[in-house]
Each structure stands twice: as C-alpha cells, then as structure tokens.
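Record type: monomer structure entry
Structure origin: computed from sequence
Chain ID: A
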Amino acid sequence: MILSPLRRFLFSALLWLPLAFFFWFEFAAPLVWPVIAMAKAVMLKAWPSLFTAVSQGADLLDAHGRVLGHPGYLMQISSGVLVNAAPVGQPAKFGFIEPVVNPMIYGYALPLFAGLVLATPLTRWQRMRQITLGCIVIWIAQAFGVIAESLKAVGLDAGQPGIDALQRAGIPLNAVALAYQFGYLILPVLVPVVLWIVCNRPFIDELIRREDTEPAPAPAVEQPPSREN
C-alpha cells in the first residue's frame, strides 16, 4: 500500500510529536534558560519598583510547606510589593510577595513546531534552519507570556497592594489581564502553526496540488441480478 504525501506527513507527525515532547520535558531547564534571561532583562529594566530580582529554579512545596524539590525550569521572582501575609484575625505580618512562575506552560509550542518540522520532507540543513528560527520566535513569545503572568502575580493576584503598585508604575490593569490571556491561550497554539506554514509553503502547495489532481476512485458498477432457469 502506497501512502499519499499528506497521509505520510500525518503518520510521521504522529511518530515525531511524542518524541519531541519527551525531549522538551527532559531538557526543560536548559530550554527555558533563554526565556528567563529575556524576561529578567525586561522586567528588571522596565519595572524596577515591581521586580527586584529574578532567578531560575525554585522550591516546589507541598500543602504543608515541605520542600519536595528544586526544579530548574521554574522562575523565582522577588518583588517590591509589600503585603500582609497573616491569616485573617491574626496580627499583621508584612512581607514582600515572591511568586513562582512556570515558563513550561507557555513553551509547548516548541516541541509542537519541532515535531511538525521533523515530519516534513526537508533536507538536514533546512530542518536545522527552521528549528533554529522556531526556537528564537517561540522563546520570544514564551517570554511574553512569562512577563504577563509575572505582572499578574505581583499585581492582580496580590490584592489591593499589588493593584496600587501597578497603578504607580503606570500599568493599566486591563492591559495586564489581556496580555496574560493572550500569552496563555493564543500564542502557544498560534505561533507554531503559523510559523510552520510560513516556512513550508512549497510543501503545503504541493500537498494541495496532489490532492486536487489525484483521480477519484471509479464508481462500482452494479451487476444485473442473475436469472435462474
């Protein structure tokens, strides 16, 4: 049985995508390093009153506050937003909010794009160029999502002290909410698909031409009922 180019591509994608996601998670810490570096540069320079430090790696705690691990793919933020951390009805206990952001939830576009490129019939150098370009574009989109969540974490999620801090920094609250939704819901899905289409227009055009010119199967000819003597 000879598969059509479209079916061959879909079959290859089904094989490559799980492998791409496996390597993405296995090397999560190195792959988020450029994202955290870009987010750190923007956050500390643009909003020094909100963010005082950004570092890669954070403690993973259980419900009782015990440390379960220190994943290298997490991002730890130190902020200048002072909040009351004491439970309701107890004496005030003020401290600076220090949220943790997970850049991985914005980065699944990377293995998705890599799986599509690996399933596309390309030369080795074409694949390398496309994956390199995809990493750069997707890292930028991923950094956008990380920055938006960081603003939401130290601003909207911190209650009135965080909202006041955003207003003092001149950041509209609606802009933070919109940027967070855009970076979380739209960019991780839209960027890899659009990028793959832009990079592989000749292959897509060939698939369309082949599907249009492929002859349709001949209709079955009904046999007249046999007459018994």
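Annotation 1: The CA atoms of residues 15 and 170 lie 48 Å apart.
Annotation 2: The first strand starts at residue 51 and ends at 56.
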